[in-house]
Write a structure and sequence with these properties.
Layout (H helix, E strand, L loop, with lengths): L5 H37 L12 E3 L4 E3 L22 H31 L8 H33 L3 H24 L5 H26 L3 H28 L3 E2 L10 H7 L3 E2 L1
Length: 275
Amino acid sequence: ASACGTLSLAAHQVLNSIFQIFRPMGDSLGQTMQTLLPAVMANNEGSYDSCEGGSYDIARGSSAGPGRSAATGAGAEIDGGAHVLSRGAVKVLKAMCAAALGLGLADAVVGTAVPGLLPTLFTRDAAVAALIIKAAPLVGLVLFVHALSMTFEGVLFATGDAKMVAKIYALNSVLVTLAFGEIRARGSPTLPVLWGAFLTYQVVRVSEFGLRILWNQRHPQSVRRKREIWPLMYRWAVKRLRRQRREDPIVDVDVVWTSAYTYEARKYSSMDYAV
C-alpha cells in the first residue's frame, strides 16, 4: 500500500482498520471448530479413524493409530493422516458452514456500508474518502470469504491435519510474494488492485482448505464398512448356528448300555442324543 501513494495509503489504513475490527469474528469460527469438533467426535463411537492406517477398536468403540492411544478419546494427532469425520461431526460442520456464510454476509454488509456510505467518519479529505468508497466493496468481499476460510482451517486443525495447513501457508506465502512482486513491477499499483489481490488470496485459501477437507473424507463409507465388518461377521455366524440347530435338531433316544460292540452301539455312537 505504501507504493500506491500517500492518499491511497491513508485510505488503506482506514480500510485495514475496518477489516481488523471484523476479522476476529471470522477467526472465532475457526477456534469454535477446533473446540467443538473434537468434543463431538469423542461422543460419537468411531468418530476418529485415520484415512491412512488407523485401526478401529470394536471393543472400545474408538480408533487407534500411530501416535494415538485408543483409550485417550479425542484430540490427539496421529502420524498416519487426517481423521475421518463421524456423521455427527459432518452435521456440525454443515451447520458451522451455514453460520460462517451468515456471519460473513453480515460482516460484508456492515464492513462495506460503514466506510462506503460514511467515509467522513474517518477522514475529511475528499480524495481519501473517494478512494475509501471505491475499495470498500472489496473489503466486504474479503470479510465474507474470510469467515468461511477460517472455519475450514479450524476443521483441518481439529482433524489432526496441521502439517498440511503449514504446507499450504508456506506455499501461499511464496505465491503472494510473487504476485505482489509482479504487481509492483508493472508500475504504481492502485488500492483496488491490492485489495483485489487480497480477495484472490482469500478465495484461493478457502478453496485449498475445502478441497483438503474433501480429500481427507474421500472414503468415509469404506471406513465405516471396515468398522462394521466384525459385528456383521459375528451376527452372520450367530444366525448361521441358529439355522443349523433348527435344521438339525437334537434327537432324543433311549440309551442302550452294553459292553459289546453290537449293532445298537454302532448305531447310537454315530448320532447326537440327549440323556
